[in-house]
Structure formats: C-alpha cells, structure tokens
Amino acid sequence: MRNLGGPQGKQLFSRLPVPIVTKYLSHCLTKKYKKKAEIFGPEEHSEYIYLVVSGRIRVYLRYPNGKEFTLTLLDAGDTYSGHTRAFGQAIADSEVLFIPVETFRNLLMEVPSFAMTVIGVLGDSLRNSINTIESLVFKEVNKRLYQFLYSLALSSDRQELHSFRVTIGLTHQQIATIVGSTRQTVNTFFNNLQKEGVLILGKDKIIIQKFDIIMERAKDDDE
Amino acid sequence: MRNLGGPQGKQLFSRLPVPIVTKYLSHCLTKKYKKKAEIFGPEEHSEYIYLVVSGRIRVYLRYPNGKEFTLTLLDAGDTYSGHTRAFGQAIADSEVLFIPVETFRNLLMEVPSFAMTVIGVLGDSLRNSINTIESLVFKEVNKRLYQFLYSLALSSDRQELHSFRVTIGLTHQQIATIVGSTRQTVNTFFNNLQKEGVLILGKDKIIIQKFDIIMERAKDDDE
DNA sequence: AAAATTCTGTCAGCTAGCCGACATTTTTAT
DNA sequence: ATAAAAATGTCGGCTAGCTGACAGAATTTT
Predict the structure, then answer these.
(1) Rounded to whole angstroms, how far apart are CA atoms A26 and A45?
(2) In whole angstroms, what is the distance from residue A175 CA to residue A68 CA?
(3) pLDDT value of residue A201
(4) Are residues A61 and B137, on separate chains, in Cβ contact within 8 Å?
(5) What is the largest CA-CA distance in chain B?
(6) Which chain B residue shows the shortest CA-CA distance from A128?
(7) A136-163: pLDDT as tens digits
(8) Cβ distance of B64 and A221 shorter than 8 Å
(9) pLDDT over 90 (residue A25)
(10) What H or E segment, with its residue span, contains residue B107?
(11) Residues of A in contact with B223 (CB under 8 A)
C-alpha cells in the first residue's frame, strides 16, 4: 500500500551539520506567502531550490484546459527543486527559503558526502512518482480515495483504538486534484462513508469510527 | 509535447573517461537474455544497477490482476537502477551488465564529479515520470497515441519530406502498455489512420504519409 | 452585518474506452 | 511441414466517473 504524499524523502537538509547549514542557508532569501499565493511556476525561478520553512505548499501540474493534478504536498522542512513543469502554491500561510542552485552546488563541493543525500532524496521522489503512476494506471478512483484516507489516518496524531480524529486542511476540490478525480466524486465518496457509519464528517475534520473497514478497502485488489 | 520514453538521461556512464569505466565495469557480470526473458523483478537483485549492453529491455509495472504498464524502454547504453517496484523484460535478445551498487559507490568515491552525472540522470528520470503522470491525468488515450506515434516518427532515421518509414518493433499489446490503454484500442487507432490515408501499415513498420496531420493531432489541447 | 466568494451536496445524462468474444492471420516451435 | 502459439481485426455491450447545473451552507471580505 502506498503513501499518497507523506513525509518521505523531501528532507534534504535535515541531516547536515548545523554549522554548514547556517553557513550556506543563512544568506538565502526567505519570503512569506499568504494562503493561495502562487510561489513558483514552471519557468520562473528555475534557478532555485525551495525549502519550506513553515506552512504548507502544494506542488501541482496544470493543463491548458485548467485541470490540475497535485504531485505532492510540502510541509516544514521539505524541499523541492524546480526544473519540472510544476507549479507551487501555498495552501496555508507559508514561509519559503530560496536557495540558488549556485549555492547548492558550492555546498555539494564542500561536503561531497552530501551528494549521497541528494541522490537519496531524488531516488525517493522518483519512487514516489512511480507510485503515483501505478496508482493512476491500475487503481480506480474509489481505491485511490480509500488509500488517501488511509494514509491520512495513519499520519494523524490523535488515535484511539478504532477511532481516529483526522484533520484534513484540504477542500474536496484539493483532494480531487491529489487523487486524480473530481470534486463531485470526492464529495459522494465521503458522504457515502458517513451514511454507512464508517466515519463522521465534521468541520475540517473527520472522525473515523471503523478504521478496519477503511484499511480493508484500501488494500490492493486480488492476490 | 513530450517524449514517451526516448533516449534522454539514461546514459549514466557514457561521459566517464574510458579507463575508469573499464576499471570498474570490466569485472562486472554480464548476462545474455532471449526475447521475452525476465531480467529483474521488484525484489531480486535490488543490489544491482543494470546497464544494457545490447538489445532492448522494457521496464514495467505489473498489478496483481495482471495488467501492466511500461515505464520506459532501455536501449544499448541505457541504465536502470532497481529500487523501484518495477520489472525488467527483454523484448529483443539482449545483453545486460550487472553493476553491484557496492562497485557503484566506490566509483562515486573515486570520481566525486560523477555524482553530478548521477544527479542529472535521476533528475531526468524524475522529469520523465512526471511527464508520464501529466499524460495519464490530462490527456485522453487518442492524444497519447498520437504523441507516441509522433515521437516514434521523430526518432526514426529514414525520413523524406512528408513521408517517414518507421520501424516499430512493438506489438499492439506492448504499445498499449506504454500508452496506458488496451490492445483493442491501439488496434483501431492505427486502422482508422490507415483508412484515413494518414499512414500505411506494413509488417512491423509504418509508412507515415501525412506527418503534419499526426503532428497536429499530437499537439496539446487548447491554448 | 451585508455582500461576495468559496465550499458542500446532489442528481441526471453522457461517453471514452474497457471488456469479453470470436475469427483470421502471422510467427514460432517441433 | 505441421502444429501450436501469438498477434491482429472487429464488434456490441457496459460502466466508471466526468460534466454541467443548480441550491444551500459556510467562509471571507467589505
């Protein structure tokens, strides 16, 4: 079972010694963004690596017809490099550090072992996007939604025996772009689960009552 | 417009000085495979990096229900690292060099600048798989087929003014797994184009007569 | 506190393209 | 050369899930 964008290998700098980090990153420009603000586009700023200091940003693809697909969500400490045809948007008030690739390259020179970290992070990203492909190609929307819900539950702090209180912080529309579906379909998915008694929908939160059912349905098909 | 798996950044070793390459790779095990042979699976051999010496191999995902999706095709000189949940299969008689990650790591130690190459190749792979995601999410099957055909034409050697002679080397079924569709749909796609007079189907080759039409229809929608 | 915007909820209709199923042709193996 | 297997063609049915459309609720802005 996969994780639809949890905190895997985006923590590029977290394992570097503090003095190095301060040396290189303290000079970098940091900017604040309000919810919904556009942080980067496919062309602009491709000379930077972005580090989320606080808040949450959504990295997404956009097609000329207006449709969008969210590749990943970045939380505090996470990193993203432009160079792909992706957009970045704050979905909560956020602070972002802009690291020029130049600086990055220098760091890589001074600390050669850092290369292994970079390679690791890239590898994780790659694995992650292959998981996304797998999900899109093989699994139908409902399964993807169950898996999304499942991983959401797992990453939620507060958890009792069978009952989870999950905070979402995402609109149905946003969930739709994560899962590759539509607002309406997401909506009916959740409402059906409520009618079924599997969960209770609250304001920006969900109380999962029958976690085992969700887990069961999130399992990949067949053998 | 994207390239559905052309020869971008899979040439990991092609820019290294020859003596280094021989030093590290001459000891490595090389194996021959016949068409259709399974070269690697998701678990096994994850301790190797694969280098295609000759032939062509297909890297693909397989779902328990039997469906498959081809991530990329590897030709001579191309490289792939296990570590993802992918399978590898020879689609022509092939020869593959197995490089233990250990050896790889040593090489990385001796030639630190090699790290940049690795990072580049990984970046390309990542970009490539994001293109695949984009394609799957936003574009309908016909568009994907036109784009596949388009890039096939571009990568074909022999080309006159408007007429291309394209060798495919793939069955409809295989094309289907590349493009994320079914055998039947691929079949009707090509036959319709033939009826339309855009191309002529030959045995394991296609003669494209109206390349501009294909190019036009391969263009992304809208703006 | 009023107005405007953004979300949620629901429903009917439509269609891309998947899924058998089967016949024919081509390729490969014996 | 013959048999077996694989690859092409073609067709009708079926359905997941997208689309638009509209109403009400909840936020946000003024």
Answers:
(1) 19
(2) 11
(3) 96
(4) yes
(5) 59
(6) B84
(7) 999 999 999 999 999 999 988 766 777 8
(8) yes
(9) yes
(10) helix B101-110
(11) 64
Question: Would you say the pTM of this structure is higher than 0.90?
Answer: yes
In whole angstroms, give the CA distance from residue B12 to residue B120. 9
pLDDT digits (tens, 9 = 90+) for B167-222: 999 999 999 999 999 999 999 999 999 999 999 999 989 999 999 999 999 999 87
Asked if the model's pLDDT at residue A213 lies above 90, the reply is: yes
> Is any atom of nucleic acid chain C found less than 7 Å from the CB of residue A189?
no
Q: Do B199 and B206 contact (CB within 8 A), yes or no? A: yes
Work out the average pLDDT over B13-38. Answer: 93
CA-to-CA distance for B81 and B92, rounded, in angstroms?
Answer: 20
Q: Determine the Cα–Cα distance for residues B95 and B54; give it in Å rounded to an integer.
A: 5
Note the strand D nucleotides within 7 A of protein beta carbons: 6-12, 16-21, 26-27
Interface test with A, best of B10, B133, B143 (most A CBs within 10 A): B133
Q: Which of B115, B132, B223 is closest, CB to CB, to A133? A: B132
Q: Output the CA torsion sign for B75, B77, B83, B89.
A: positive
Size of the A and B interface in Cβ pairs below 8 Å: 114
What is the C-alpha separation between B2 and B132, in angstroms, rounded? Answer: 9
Q: Helix, strand or coil for residue A152?
A: helix
For residue B156, give how far its alpha carbon lies from the nearest alpha carbon of chain A (Å).
27
A151 interfaces chain B, CB cutoff of 8 Å: no
Q: pLDDT digit string (tens) for B60-97? A: 999 999 999 999 999 999 999 878 889 999 999 999 99
Enclosing H/E stretch for B129 = helix B114-138
Kindly provide the b/e burial profile for residues A50-66, where b requires at least 16 CB atoms within 10 angstroms of the residue's own CB.
bbbeebbbbbbbbbeee
The residues with which A75 forms a beta bridge, in sequence order, are: A56
As given in the structure block, the two tokens for residue B34 are 């016949």
